[in-house]
Structure formats: C-alpha cells, structure tokens
Amino acid sequence: MIGWKGKKTVAYHCCGKRQHGCANIEGGSTVNRCVKWIIRHRILVIALCLLSLVPACFGIASQKVSYDLVTYLPFAAESQRGQEILMREFGEGAVSLMVTEGLTERQEKELEEQLKKVEHVRSVLSYAGLTQGILPAAMLPDAIQKLIENGNARLCAVFFEQAASSEETLTAVEDMRRIAGKECFISGLASVFTDMRSVVRQEEAACVLAAVVIGAMVLMMLLDSFLAPLLILLSTGVGVLWNLGSNGFLHEISALSRPSSVVLQMAVTVLFPVILWHAYREKRTEMPSRDEAMVQAVTECVPTILGAGLASAGSCAALCTITFPSGTEMGVVMAKGVLLGMACSLLFFPCLLRLADGLVEKTAHRSLIPDAKGIARFVLHHDRHLAAAFAVLMIFAACVLPGLSVHSGLSLRQERAVPSKKAEEKLMEKFGIGSAHLMLIDADLSAKEVRSLTETVRKTEGIRAVFGMHTLTGNGIPEAFLPSGVVRMFRSGQHQLLLAASACRTDSAEMKEQVRQLTAILRDADPEGVLMGDASMIAGVEEDGESVVLRAAILALLTVMVILGLFQRSLLLPVLSTVTMGCVISAVLSIPLCAGGTLPAMTPFAMFSLQLAAMTGETLLVTDAYRKARGSGKPRREAVSLAVTRAAKPLITSLCVQASMLAAIDVASSIEPIVMTCRLAACATVLGMAAALLILPAFLILFDRIIVRTTAGMHRAFRQ
C-alpha cells in the first residue's frame, strides 16, 4: 500500500508495516515518485507524446521501402558466389523465359528491339535475334528449333542487369509487360517477385486495418468498457508510429517488415496496457483516490512489464544472428518496437486512462471473461494429469520436429490469378518447360569436355535441352555469323555460360532431385563450376534452412531464459517458462509436417522469435504472481491458485486479441509465407494460453520445493 503525505510518499507492506530503505523496483520510492509525477502532469505527458508523432510521421514518409523479398531467405554461399560472377563478368543478374503468341518474325524482331531499350534489360535471346534474317531456321540445331518454336508460339530469354529480386529488375518486368501486351508471357522469379510486390502494396493497408478492427471488437467484448479498448489501441498505435518513424538509421526497410512489424508489435505489446487496465480496476476498489489507485497499479506492474518487455525484445533480437539479409533489419525493428511499446504503455497509457476515466465509467459493461477460480480449481485437482499431457506433447514435438523441411514460400494463394502464374502455365503448355538452369564453367575447358558435359546434362531426367556457344555453332555455323551480343551472352574472359531448360517446375520435389544430380555432374566436369538459376536458389533455401532454423530457435530460447532468470532471480522458473513456450511452438510447427507438408522458410524464424516474444509476457505474468505470493509466505497451492486467478483476465484478453489479429491477416493476405505464419501463430497463441493457465501452474505445484530453493527472496516459503 502507498500512503500519500503531502509531497512525500511512504511505502507500506501489505501487512501495514512501514517499509524502510525500499529503493528497489518492487514498489520502491524512486519508481513511485516517478510514476506519481507522471500522473500529476498527465496532460503535459500526453501532449509531449502526441507532439512526438510529428517527427515520427516525417520519418515514416521519408523511409525508403525495399521490395526485395529474397532478403527473407537464407541463401547458401554458393548461390551468392555464382550471382557475383554472373554480374561481374557477364553483366547479367537474372534470366526470364518469355513466350510470345501470334507474332510474325518481323514483329518479334521489333518487339526484341523495344525490349532491349528497357532500362536494366541486358540482352534478349530470341529466334529473330539468332537469325537476324541472315541464317535460315534450317541451319539452327534441331534441339533449338524444336524448343524455341511451337506453332504460332515462340520462346525467348531475357537477361537482366540486376538480380531477380532487385527493384531495377522488377521495374523492368513491369515495363516489359506494358510493351509486350497480353500476348506475351514473362515467367521466372523476376516475374513472381513483381507480382508479389504488387500484392504487398495492395494488401498492406488492408491487413493492418483488418487486424486493428478485429482486435478492437475482441477487446470490447472482453473488457468491461467500450472506451477502454480504443484507449489501449491508441496507446499501442502511438508506440507503432514511434517505431516506424525511428527507422531512419536503417538505409531502407523491407516491404514485409513494415506491415509485419505493425501487427506483431501491436499483438505483442497489447498485453502491457491490458495488465495496467486490470491492475487499475482492482486498485480502484481498494484506494480512496483515483490518482493513488493509478500510481499503485503502475508501480506494481513495472517489474512485470519491464521483464516481459526486455525478454520479448531479446527474443526478437535473436533474428539479428540469422544469415538471411533481412534478419538483422527485422530483429532490430521488432526489438525496438517492443521496447517503445513498453515505454508507451508505462508513460502514455496511464495518463490517457486517468484523463478519460469519467468517460470510461460511463461506457462500462459486463465483461465476457469467465471467473478464473474454476480454472484454478481444475489445475489444483489435475496437476499431475496436466503434466503428463504436456509430456505427451513434448514427445510428439520431439519425434516430428527433427523432420522439419522448409521451402522458399515465394508464392501466392492458389486462387490468386497473377501474370507470373499464367506465364508459368503457358510455358509448360507450349514448350513443356518449368524452369531454367544456368551453369558457369571454366572458359578454358576444351570443346570436347564441354560437349561431354552438355551431353551428360541433356541425358539427365527432366532436361529438355542445353544451350551454349557450342550448340549454336553445332551445325557448322561460324561463330563470326552470330551476333556479337549473343557471343557476349555465353562467354566471358574467365567463364562460359550454359543454359539448360528443364521440364520440372521450380518448387517441385523432382526439381530438387534434378538440382542434386546436376550439381554432381558439374562438379565432375569442373570442380569450380557453379549451378545457378531459380531452382538451384530455392533448393539452397531448403537445404540450408533447417540448420538456420535450429540455430535461431536455440538462441532465442536461451536469450529469453537468461533475461527471465535475471529479472526473477531464479534458476528453475525461467527454465519451466521457456520449456513450456518452446514445446508449444514446436508442437504447432509439427502439425503441417504430420501431413507431409513443408513450411515457408520465414515461418519457423518468426515462430521461434516473434511468437516466442508474444508468449513471454503471458508466462511471466503467471510465474511473477506465483513468486510474489509464495515469497510472502503463502502455501504452494494457494500461491498457484492466486497466480492463476490474478493472471487469467489480462492473459486471456491479450491472447484472444493476438489470435484474432493474426486470424484477420490470414484472411486478408494472399502471400503464402504471411498466411502460413499467421495461421500457425494463431494456433500457437491459443495453445499457449492453455499452457500458461494449465500446464505452467501444474509445473509450479510439482516443482515448488526446487523453485523455492533456487529463487532469491523466497526464504519465507521454506516454512510452508
């Protein structure tokens, strides 16, 4: 209890005895004086917080956004090395296959000239470009004739100066589509990324708006006031704007990071004002003054919110160690967002709530959250059964999760009709081609060695044809007859380039096996050779993704465990919390694997860092209430019952809001990695709520004796 005597603040224990020399964070005089000053000057604090939004808005408006979605994938060093060679020696960063229909040779030649003038298009290889009206089609090798022409459809290859995911290449694809019209179909990752960029731009605002509206509706049902949810969302919204406006030190922010950070920050930090709301409502019935009640509520909640916020930020920061380029950016943005959201909850929200207290009372209604005493009784009567059920869950996750398999996830929902999907279907229908491989080999290899390599590659299952300088001159065509641009396209001073057309689709299991075979063939012919292209890049994601996921998961769990241990001054409590959260996330990730499916590469990272951050506050709410009750001398079962009862309302409220926001994005978005991540995160949120209210309290009962002996400040519990 806090007594107010003029300008001096005197702290008391709950038993009524005066507290001397209390300067720690648990209701200490320093924190109490700061909170009291903030509440007294609430109008000034609110004004300063709102004024700070002006520079934040300027920062958001000036922030450069990158739509390079490849930065969310953990590519292998081999792909990066090949990309550097291709751009340095050939001036090419990516290739797309384009199908034209109903064009004469002259029209195709005119189209080729127009496409060559598009900025960031390096070169175009087509039938008209090969013959230039000089060579008859009969002089071209049979394999090339059959492959590049089928009735009124022709196939050509477009080489870009930059990587497939770069802003320059995406803009070039859009320009090519405008020039070529509806009778031309551009395939490849460059076309896929262009469509995904368009979808991200269209859906960004809709996803955020859907999450906010659904979250507000759920809050209005679960809280006992219609106005309080708006105040909570306003507080978290201010924190979001602070975060977005303070990203100026980053050169640019990725397109997926911005909407993801908005929704995930709101989902993670909504717990903090909810905790304060329930604490204030409880203190209102105990304290004579509303200011006293607010100061007491904030002072008591500071340790829990501070510990949850730092642990959640540490979990997000674990993304900075991931090898994919956007890992550092996403980790920094999310960790900063959690800290700013925590600061906003402790500064802005108490002042806002106290200022609007009268209106909050006028909009009061009955909450839909049931009485938590029944949950506490259930835990006390079935603690061993709950622990046994959790053990089964652990065994399930331990058996299934080691078989984790990831894929690139660079796709949209199946029902979404986009130009890249139409081009892929047209390419397969007309020419039986699903993807293309690029092979960089040493320029000093003899003609005999190159022909042997080409023949071996051609015999590989699923390969339709192989192109190179030797195939273009295979029918006795002198190299001097070929256009100089075609020669530069396939040969540099140190390397030569082979282009292999495959009948396998880029993301199929057959393509994965084909990439393995081609890599082995290439290594035999040239140990320094590099296999590139859309398929090999995606195969590298699938091969390296599992190890990266494991490393990120271990680091995130250890980070949370250490931070919780320091705040709770306990050895076993953070272990129980972290094991519970880790097992819940592992079990949810195992669900798609049981059906033989795979996960988008970014989903496990998000689950083991961002979702872990969201669950940390809930488990800390339970264990902190138990630690305080047990440390004050209450028996273990009474302490656990009290912890569940006190934590249930804010925990159920925040987790229901999180799940509803994630479900709203699942419905509103068309991008596969976002859809799958939000769907699994919503499942993990529901399962995490059950674990925090049922499993974790059961562990507290079973391991109480060890917890008491390994936690500082619980000496009074030894006598119970």
Question: How is this structure best described in words?
Answer:
This protein has two domains: 40-65 and 204-408 and 541-719, Multidrug efflux transporter AcrB transmembrane fold, CATH 1.20.1640.10; 78-194 and 416-538, no CATH class. Residues 1-28 have low confidence and may be disordered. Strands 4, 5, 6, 7 and 8 form a five-stranded antiparallel sheet that branches. A four-stranded antiparallel sheet has the order 12-13-11-14, with helices on both faces. A two-stranded antiparallel sheet has the order 1-2. Helix 13 (290-317) crosses helix 25, helix 16 crosses helix 26 (636-668) and helix 23 (534-568) packs antiparallel against helix 24 (572-594). The chain is elongated, with a radius of gyration of 31 Å. By secondary structure, the protein is an alpha+beta fold.
